[in-house]
Write a structure and sequence with these properties.
Length: 753
């Protein structure tokens, strides 16, 4: 393999490989020819093909150059040796001197004593590693990027051909464990709570590509262009559709349109066509590369963008394959997939969708956001979901208990059916009080707002008839877009939010990037401790242009309306003052330029950093309102990472120190006549919400699904009874007073979800 090896050579080699694989004879014989062809084509001394067998073992299946007696004898576990390393990480490896690599293991039966350099690429099919293709040379030879790329292209073609000829039967790879009739439990991580029962529908069965290699790259480039045009039309139609339904997926879908026009992505597909692949094979190759990059990306924002690109690649593949791949759902369907894009999820009939199970997935992925809005239970990170679940398997998905039960017994089905019925009744009960105020039985009114962050969330405001949006997290477009949205784009978005709220107040929070939201690395480098790093107001005060643009867009979007702005992660009064000064400057500028003023203006702060607790005296003289962010305040008070599930039960929000802090802050705000609200998760947990009301909180903001249960508990309590009980608990020595509060509500017949 030298510089003399051109795109034309590669095309010729791919054609020959295709002909050999399509030819007659046993699979073994064809693979033997294939490895010889590759060794010759790539001018290597050795070419070997390892195939994944049951139990995650890679077996030497065919070789040119190594000892033939090793074929079907040499086996390596995934992760063992260089071949195992390539399979484990699903990425290529190129070593001028393989022997000096720490992972190298010597297998005497192969006779590989004479070969120094090694280059290998994974054989990936439908997102799974099904083998490894390796070439070796006698002399120490550094491989260049083009050579690695070439081997990857060859590997991609071989993988598809192997799958088509079923070199290893799927049943062997994915043997069901134990007695297939017994039910099996698989655990995962809940991305949206809820319970669903239904039959498994595999999302997007792998598109079998009929033609992999083409001798006419020009015609393939035309096919790609036509398919891209169709893709753009599809995404535009989805955007228009979402507008009609006023469900507001617009902000996510707009990002898609941007990707569909992404030059880098399109040119990678186009390059793969030039190297001899058909348009669909080229899309598949870029798709596979993307998948490998997704699984390796540590940066969550990057992972999500790559996932979105994968979604688009799937669409493109369907268009090229002639469409018709849309799966019709049975009435009760549990969708099973490796991962899914938001537009793909929206393609399904949501009335028939009872749940979503994913092998991968993260809480901030776009599909999870859509699933939440559609109220579909989601369980992610279910290892082995694709291999162990078969189409039409009956599944109970219990996202609350973070598990699925495969092939459940009649008793299990009965149990869950009863739970679903009870839940349906409860929802009906919440719907019945939808238009009633959250007022205690002794007449104390509590305002309940929702937390939102996407246009899609605006529907929640209508559904649960909340009093407003107590926290609008503005980071979403910053998370989703490849470039930072400008003032115009932000203005358009905030305007839609204000219009969607139909006169109800909206509290916009300025950019809260960093921490668990978005790696601040998008702005700087990676940080050791991002939750306590350069995030939120710290970042925007250091980059005031970001803050100014955001405030400018908010001010313009709220002309003649109520304008409420708050700053996140404020740690000192000085920081609040600095942010407020920037706000005042932007307001002056807006008015000077002839802009209309908002109906009213309130500028407030989140209370999330403990240090602020000891600056309350000064703070209440400056701020118009304070909103308590319990999620962050708790993680800093207890020094317990909010994203670490192992710590989730180590401390309780219903504990004397927390309740005391809240009582004090409520008192200080009341004395200074400064509006106080709670917008962290605590406000949306019924027992916690009751305790907050007892401590004097009169404004709560929570996720939309929490509104019904919280409204119900408030409406069924007598504050004059609850208040002294809770205040008495402040003196308790227990780390948690939750059970005591629960027992109290049960005694008094207070409605707890
Ligand atoms: C909080 O920290 O409680 C809060 C509401 O903000 P976020 O969850 O967005 O950090
Ligand atoms: Mg916070």
């Amino acid at each position: 393999m030298t510089d003399l090896f051109s795109a034309g050579d590669l095309r010729r080699m791919l054609s020959r490989l295709r002909d050999v694989m399509a030819g007659a004879g046993a699979v073994q014989g064809r693979l033997d020819k294939v490895v010889a062809l590759i060794a010759e084509g790539l001018r290597a001394d050795v070419c070997s093909c390892y195939v994944m067998r049951a139990g995650e073992v890679l077996e030497l299946f065919a070789t040119f150059g190594l000892a033939q007696k090793a074929v079907h004898q040499t086996r390596l576990r995934v992760g063992e040796g260089l071949v195992g390393e390539i399979a484990a990480h699903a990425r290529p490896l190129a070593l001028a001197d393989a022997w000096s690599h720490p992972q190298f293991v010597y297998r005497p039966e192969t006779g590989e004593d004479f070969f120094r350099s090694l280059m290998g690429a994974p054989l990936v099919q439908a997102g799974r590693v099904i083998g490894v293709l390796v070439v070796q040379t006698r002399e120490e030879r550094p491989f260049n990027d083009w050579e690695v790329e070439t081997l990857e292209t060859v590997a991609m073609v071989i993988a598809e051909l192997m799958a088509a000829t079923q070199v290893v039967k799927r049943e062997e790879l994915f043997q069901s464990e134990g007695n297939a009739l017994l039910h099996v439990r698989l655990s995962g991580a809940s991305l949206n709570p809820g319970v669903g029962i239904g039959v498994a529908v595999m999302h997007k069965p792998h598109v079998r590509i009929g033609r992999l290699v083409s001798d006419d790259p020009v015609a393939e480039q035309h096919r790609l262009q036509d398919a891209l045009d169709a893709l753009r039309r599809e995404v535009d139609a989805l955007i228009d559709g979402s507008r009609d339904e006023s469900e507001g997926y617009g902000d996510i879908l707009e990002v898609y349109r941007m990707f569909a026009d992404d030059r880098g992505w399109i040119s990678r597909i186009s390059e793969a066509i030039s190297s001899g692949l058909t348009a669909e094979a080229a899309v598949q190759k870029v798709h596979d590369d993307t998948h490998v990059r997704i699984t390796q990306a540590n940066d969550p924002i990057l992972r999500e963008r790559l996932q979105d690109l994968e979604d688009l690649a799937n669409r493109l593949l369907n268009i090229l394959a002639g469409g018709g791949l849309r799966v019709e759902l049975p009435d009760n369907a549990i969708l099973v997939c490796r991962s899914i894009g938001p537009t793909e999820l929206l393609d399904y009939d949501r009335r028939k969708l009872k749940g979503l199970v994913m092998e991968e997935g993260s809480p901030t992925m776009h599909a999870a956001v859509v699933a939440k809005a559609l109220d579909i239970p989601v369980l992610a990170q279910v290892h082995g979901a694709l291999s162990r679940i078969d189409s039409l398997d009956l599944i109970v998905l219990d996202a609350n208990a973070e598990q699925i039960v495969l092939r459940p017994s009649d008793e299990i089905i009965e149990l869950y059916t009863a739970a679903i019925d009870a839940r349906t009744k409860q929802k009906a009960a919440y719907a019945a009080i939808r238009d009633l105020p959250a007022v205690t039985r002794d007449g104390v009114r509590v305002s309940i707002s929702i937390n939102a962050g996407l246009l899609i969330d605006m529907q929640g405001l209508v559904d649960c008839n909340a009093d407003g949006i107590g926290l609008y997290r503005t980071e979403m477009p910053f998370l989703a877009m490849p470039t930072l949205p400008d003032v115009k784009a932000q203005y358009a978005l905030y305007k839609q939010v204000i219009e969607g709220a139909k006169g109800k107040p909206v509290t916009f929070r300025t950019l809260d990037v960093g921490g668990d939201k978005i790696a601040a690395s998008s702005f700087s480098g990676p940080e050791d401790n991002p939750a306590m790093g350069w995030r939120s107001i710290r970042l925007t005060l250091d980059r005031p242009a970001l803050l100014r643009q955001q405030l400018r867009a908010m001010i313009k979007a709220t002309e003649g309306e109520v304008l409420r702005v708050m700053f996140p992660m404020v740690a000192s009064v000085a920081e609040f003052d600095a942010a407020r000064r920037i706000f005042d400057l932007e307001m002056e500028r807006h008015l000077r330029d002839g802009g209309r003023s908002p109906k009213s203006v309130s500028v407030g702060t989140m209370l999330e950093v403990p240090a602020l607790l000891w600056q309350m005296e000064l703070l209440v003289t400056r701020t118009d309102f304070i909103s308590l962010g319990t999620n962050d305040l708790m993680q800093f008070m207890f020094a317990a990472d909010r994203g670490n599930t192992r710590l989730a039960h180590r401390y309780d929000t219903l504990s004397p120190p927390v309740l005391k802090v809240i009582r004090d802050v409520v008192g200080q705000c009341a004395a200074a006549k400064v509006e106080f609200s709670v917008c962290g998760e605590m406000a949306g947990v019924p027992l916690d919400a009751l305790a907050l009301v007892a401590l004097g909180c009169r404004n709560l903001s929570m996720s939309a699904p929490a509104v019904g249960p919280v409204r119900a508990i408030i409406r069924s309590a007598v504050l004059a009874e609850v208040e002294p009980f809770i205040l008495d608990l402040l003196r308790a020595g227990d780390p948690s007073v939750r059970e005591r509060i629960r027992a109290f509500t049960q005694d008094r017949g207070i409605s707890v979800d």
